[in-house]
Amino acid sequence: MDTKLIKCDTIPEGVPALYMAAKGSDIRVPALSDSETEYVKSRIERGDDLIILSRLGLYTCVVVNDCSKPVAEQLESTRRMSAKILQVVKEHEHPVIAAVDLVNDPELISALVEGLLLVNYRFDKYVTRKERKEFFPDEISIYCPYLNDDDITRLRSVCEAVYLARDLVNEPLSHLNASGLADRLRDMGAHAGFEVEVMNKQKLESLKMGGLLAVNKGSVDPPTFSVMEWKPENPINDKPVVLAGKGVVYDTGGLSLKPTSKSMDYMKCDMAGAATVAGVLYTVASCRLPLHVIGLIPATDNRPDGNAIVPGDIITMYDGTTVEVLNTDAEGRLLLGDALSWAKQYDPALVIDIATLTGSAQAAIGTQGMVAMHRDAAAWYSLLEESGYHTHERTVLFPLWDEYFEMIRSDVADIKNIGGREAGTITAGKFLEHFISYPWIHLDIAGPAFLHTAETYRTKGGTGTGVRLLADFLFRYAMKGKK
Fold first, then answer.
1. Which of 258, 288, 344, 460 is catalytic?
2. All structural domains of the chain with their residue ranges
3. E strands along 204-292, which residues?
4. Active-site annotation holds for 246
5. Which DSSP helix (H) or strand (E) runs through 198?
6. SS3 label, residue 462
7. Residue 65, strand partner residues
8. DSSP string of 26-79?
9. Which residues of 315-324 are buried (b: 16+ CB within 10 A; e: fewer)?
10. CA distance readout (Å), 136 to 55, 78, 139, 233, 434
11. Distance between CA atoms of residues 403 and 418, nearest Å
């Protein structure tokens, strides 16, 4: 993301402008004449929420906010204006535009800029014949009396992190295997300032990381386990927050082979959880957040090669648990089980895992949210839920009743990696719960992580779902800790 965000102390003149106005207020747009102002007011009275005026190569967009709606709805409707505004921005090709707050609401003007930046994302690095280079301004000047430099830094870093996460998800296996993912994480760490340690296959074998190694048995490429850490000098948390992301860089389903149409053909996205964790660490470090945060990414592809695990195999996980593998396409929980066991050594305040774990989650709630479960983390989840509404990356809480564990008991091992036909998302959560001993939240992003059709600023392909949610959550946690 190359566009600069500049904070202005006065309203910019002589450049195209996006004005944030409020419905029902006395609209006073500095760049407009009296007759233009009356025209804008008449359009607002008709119910329009976006008015575009163009003259002599410059344009003015007036975005009208309905203050009577809940704050979360105001923010999301503002972000969703971005697709229409982008058309005007691209048409006029002005290198600098201004975003002007007329309602004294830094969250609204930030949402406007955020939506515009995110809707502009394109993954076209492998398109060799581009008819014309996609235009986007080099600079967005932001005028808002209540927005400070830290707010601008946070806004930019979060959008950059979403771009990075989307890029990782959209990369095909031919250009991003487990080792390649680890290299990208090292690059992100070097740029943002967090530490990255990568454990290779030999190290994982010495640790007996059985879940990750089992999934990797059918691959010609070695697995990796990346540990990312941001630890400032004086963090406000005595115990770290640990994030674990599923890093299956491509999932055929193994010998439990997936069908192709809208299943295996886009399974490069099965490392979306890993991409999210990487993006969050990038944001936290870029903004120098005073929190100790650790990211864990177990990574491999899942293929049906000659030595691949088969249904009926019994494996031993990192913590010594034996697992009867009845479906090799339920592999993500094997990676995460090892990662969650590994997390115990940090004595964490909270662990959040995030993964494209089950098709059942998408079947349950579609692409509009993510399934959540938690254990001993009610206060944490309440804060996360606030962030979900604020960022419109919402969570739906599913139960973890004890009866569900009976569905994954095995006759020949400690547990099995699938339950029955029913409650597939929950039994996957119960499997993960077996490996924890700390406050824990599980997020299943199978629905929103990858879209076949764009939804305004959630672009087609990888969406970077979870980056904005978890970044907002950690910023809120840091602010509460400072009080």
1. 258
2. 4-147, 156-482
3. 224-230, 241-245, 247-251
4. no
5. strand 195-199
6. strand
7. 22
8. ----TTS-HHHHHHHHHHHHTT-SEEEEEETTEEEEEEEE-TTS-HHHHHHHHH
9. bbbbbebebb
10. 20, 19, 9, 38, 48
11. 15
* Distance from C-alpha of 323 to C-alpha of 299, rounded to nearest angstrom: 19
Looking at domain 4-147, which CATH architecture does it have? 3-Layer(aba) Sandwich (3.40)
Question: How far is 432 from 323, CA to CA, in rounded Å?
Answer: 12
Distance between CA atoms of 243 and 282, rounded to whole angstroms? 13
Q: Is 333 a residue of the active site?
A: yes
How many Cα atoms within 13 Å fall on the side-chain side of residue 444?
29
Per-residue pLDDT of the chain (483 residues; tens, 9 = 90+): 889 999 998 888 889 999 998 887 777 788 788 888 888 888 888 888 999 988 766 888 999 998 889 999 999 999 999 989 998 898 888 999 999 999 899 999 999 999 999 999 999 999 988 777 788 999 999 999 999 999 999 999 999 999 999 999 999 999 999 999 999 999 999 999 999 999 999 999 999 999 999 999 999 999 999 999 999 999 999 999 999 999 999 999 999 999 877 789 899 999 999 999 999 999 999 999 999 999 999 999 999 998 999 999 999 999 999 999 999 999 999 999 999 999 999 999 999 999 999 999 999 999 999 999 999 999 999 999 999 999 999 999 999 999 999 999 999 999 999 998 899 999 999 999 999 999 999 999 999 999 999 999 999 999 999 999 999 999 999 988 754
Integer Cα distance of 443 and 434 in angstroms: 16
Helices 71-80 & 82-92, crossing angle to 10 degrees? 30
State which fold the 156-482 domain adopts: Aminopeptidase (3.40.630)
The active-site residue out of 156, 166, 303, 333 is: 333
Closest by CA to 440, choosing from 317, 369, 344, is 344
Q: How many CB atoms lie within 10 A of CB 221?
A: 18
